[in-house]
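User: Please fill in residues for this 609-position structure.
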């Protein structure tokens, strides 16, 4: 039987897999929080939350990642795009989602904003999300004060508890993306006044380069500059980068273009004079405080925004259209929005076709919608994750050396790790870092819509620049040496089965690759987490997560080890997973028959209740 013809989205995934067209080059890879993360923490005591707090994020350049609202970037977040807002009441631009830090929240870190991921195709040919922005001043201090005052048994204090959303006094802002081509992204922002009165709203689509030039490792500096044709209503920002090439952000009917540098405001942060007045928070100071001298009058820089000044009547909406496109030598700006609306409608129809073909026929319309939005949340939660441990421990040539204590502190045994990939995040605000066992579970639903991405995720985490030479799988950035449940083999088997069911053929090379790395990981468990050699295993961060009255990873005060039923149970499952994979591989290579027998015998040797 001839295979069924692929729909448009399936064709894009096929093209991306074979590198014909890099549809995954651009995506929602921008973090929602980079402040308060381990990778931005250069303190002596590992106090990440206080070393880089939210109050500094608008003024201080990030070393490893960037963040923003509803943003996109290339797959290494070298060129970033996101939205900023101002309601003429906030003390600074709303450039990133706010939440309480880990020590402030009565249940740990917690984002205090309202937003929804509404839709996304796996190639990100179409994406949409909704952000609800209050018309009153955002209650930053009240959210912190109330959260700190509450105990662990109290409910969390949320944005709606402050009263700023009464009478629907907020803007609903829909952010949509549609790709005309892999390097041609259409952007549509629809702002709606849901309140009872006219209200002002400034929308600032912002484009900037991640700062890669201030650390003494690569001094090449990209640039943004104004490139507007005088006889059109389209303002253009041209972005030139030594590896990305040249892109143009076309902004229809903008009020202003504002340029500055993605450099720290040393004066505000540490009382040190700035070498240039054009710093990271200059656009915020210009818009909010009227300090026009802080943006570059020459319309050049490494961070720029188009300003739209709106006053929306009740229940009225306004649409802003932009286009980000890579250009060649013979590119023209003529009629840049001519096919804009038609392309959006086409991509939305193609998204409907993709999910209609994919959803089980037994699902009701409501259940199909739930499934689609759940998958959208998974797809929006991809993030470029950048964290090179050796450079982080040693510091950068152009920066002051970090404290010596760090060289023996957090993650120091993991110097080989070289994180520079798009990864699936548990949550891009509350947990903007991968956790290996979370990642394994993510790959199951992701394989339903994009098996190639799911396979790449599982392959990456066991590559030599992630997996420890001793066989341990890295856990998460707060402590890569924590012990996570051994679920990667199970995930690889499930992804293999899902792809085989969809296409009629499983990827045996992928399965075999992960299997060999799991042999090393299994040996690590047996040698490191079975202290008495009786197949009863220790390990702290396991089935009960990290919830407990004491640290289950640490040795007890008298030197004894905590043996756990969940650790032992996970190892029983691990044995069966490897046995099942070995049986599958043995169907074409009999060498694996003896290995399957070995894991069956190991399973029988593990004590069971």
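Assistant: Residues filled in for all 609 positions:
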């Amino acid at each position: 039987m001839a295979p069924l013809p692929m729909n448009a989205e399936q064709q894009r995934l096929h093209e991306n897999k074979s590198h014909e067209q890099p549809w995954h080059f651009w995506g929602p890879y921008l973090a929602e929080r980079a402040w308060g993360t381990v990778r931005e923490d250069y303190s002596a005591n590992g106090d990440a939350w206080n070393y880089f707090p939210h109050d500094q994020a608008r003024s201080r350049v990030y070393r490893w990642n960037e963040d923003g609202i509803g943003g996109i970037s290339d797959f290494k977040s070298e060129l970033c795009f996101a939205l900023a807002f101002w309601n003429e009441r906030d003390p600074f631009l709303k450039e990133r989602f706010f939440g309480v830090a880990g020590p402030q929240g009565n249940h740990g870190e917690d984002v205090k904003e309202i937003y929804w991921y509404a839709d996304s195709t796996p190639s990100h040919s179409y994406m949409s999300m909704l952000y609800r922005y209050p018309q009153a001043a955002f209650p930053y201090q009240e959210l912190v004060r109330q959260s700190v005052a509450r105990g662990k048994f109290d409910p969390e204090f949320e944005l709606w508890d402050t009263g700023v959303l009464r009478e629907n006094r907020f803007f609903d802002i829909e952010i949509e993306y549609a790709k005309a081509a892999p390097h041609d992204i259409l952007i549509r922002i629809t702002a709606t006044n849901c309140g009872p009165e006219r209200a002002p709203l400034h929308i600032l689509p912002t484009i900037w380069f991640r700062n890669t030039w201030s650390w003494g490792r690569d001094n090449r500096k990209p640039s943004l500059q104004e490139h507007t044709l005088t006889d059109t209503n389209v303002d253009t920002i041209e972005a030139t980068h030594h590896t990305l090439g040249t892109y143009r952000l076309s902004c229809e009917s903008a009020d202003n273009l504002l340029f500055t540098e993605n450099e720290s405001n040393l004066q505000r942060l540490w009382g040190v004079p700035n070498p240039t007045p054009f710093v990271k928070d200059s656009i915020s100071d210009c818009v909010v405080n009227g300090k026009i001298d802080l943006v570059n009058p020459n319309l050049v820089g490494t961070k720029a925004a188009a300003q739209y000044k709106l006053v929306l009547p009740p229940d009225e909406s306004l649409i802003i259209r932009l286009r980000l496109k890579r250009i060649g030598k013979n590119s023209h700006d003529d009629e840049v929005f001519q096919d804009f609306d038609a392309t959006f409608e086409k991509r939305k129809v193609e998204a409907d076709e993709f999910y209609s073909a994919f959803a089980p026929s037994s699902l009701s319309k409501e259940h199909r919608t739930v499934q689609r939005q759940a998958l959208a949340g998974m797809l929006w939660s991809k993030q470029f994750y950048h964290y090179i441990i050796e450079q982080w421990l040693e510091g950068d040539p152009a920066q002051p050396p970090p404290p010596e204590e760090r060289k023996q502190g957090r993650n120091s045994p993991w110097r080989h790790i070289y994180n520079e990939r798009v990864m699936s995040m548990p949550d891009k605000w509350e947990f903007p870092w991968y956790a290996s066992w979370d990642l394994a579970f993510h790959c199951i639903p992701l394989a339903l819509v994009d098996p190639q991405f799911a396979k790449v995720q599982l392959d990456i985490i066991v590559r030599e620049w992630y997996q420890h030479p001793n066989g341990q799988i890295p856990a998460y950035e707060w402590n890569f040496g924590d012990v996570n449940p051994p679920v990667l083999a199970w995930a690889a088997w499930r992804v293999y089965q899902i792809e085989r069911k969809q296409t009629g053929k499983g990827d045996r090379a992928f399965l075999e690759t992960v299997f060999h790395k799991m042999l090393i990981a299994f040996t690590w468990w047996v040698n490191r987490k079975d202290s008495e050699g009786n197949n009863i295993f220790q390990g702290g961060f396991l089935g009960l997560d990290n919830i407990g009255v004491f640290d289950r990873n640490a040795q007890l005060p008298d030197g004894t080890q905590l043996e756990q039923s969940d650790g032992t149970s996970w190892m029983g499952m691990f044995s069966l997973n490897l046995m099942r994979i070995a049986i599958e591989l043995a169907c074409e290579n009999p060498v694996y028959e003896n290995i399957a027998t070995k894991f069956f015998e190991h399973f029988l040797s593990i004590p069971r209740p």
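For context: The chain is about 30% helix and 20% strand.
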